[in-house]
Amino acid sequence: MQDEKHWYVIHSQAGSEERVEKNLMQRVRSLDAGDRIFQVVIPKEQEIEVRGGQKRTVTKKIFPGYLLVEMLMDDKSWAVVRNTPGVTGFVSSQDQDGRLVPVPLDDGQVKSILNKEKEAPRLRVGFSKGQSVRVADGPFQDFVGVVDEISMDKGKVKVLISFFGRETPIELDYLQVERI
User: Counting CB atoms within 10 angstroms of each CB, which of 9, 13, 60, 96 has the fewest?
Assistant: First the structure.
């Protein structure tokens, strides 16, 4: 089919990406397909979660249920991947004859996806604009307010707090606010 290696996307059963990766690599070794299938990657990224006033870094799958496979596409490599337990198919499109044909990813897309894992963790906020929150720390501790603005780049949130009978905007750090 093709004489150069490309990255392809395969679909797996949800939540079983690690098992599929392990099964596929085992099949590559046992069926001596290492000269056709080179890498299997589960795209992941680091996120900072704020829960209960605590920051923690967690690894999240970017595309749950999908894996990337770098391979030379031919009948043998296709069969090795396609017949791996847990693989439900390739991400593909129809050709002019109506057959499903696996579609390779562009090099730019692959670089972007693979670089996500190397990037600094991004902050995941557990609240949104208009949501009621409680101030967990600082001089306004235990005050209840409404999120007015979220500044991801600064790590700050602007909360409208009813203070002396009128709403007052207060800028707080993410760690100082918790959902009600």
Answer: 96
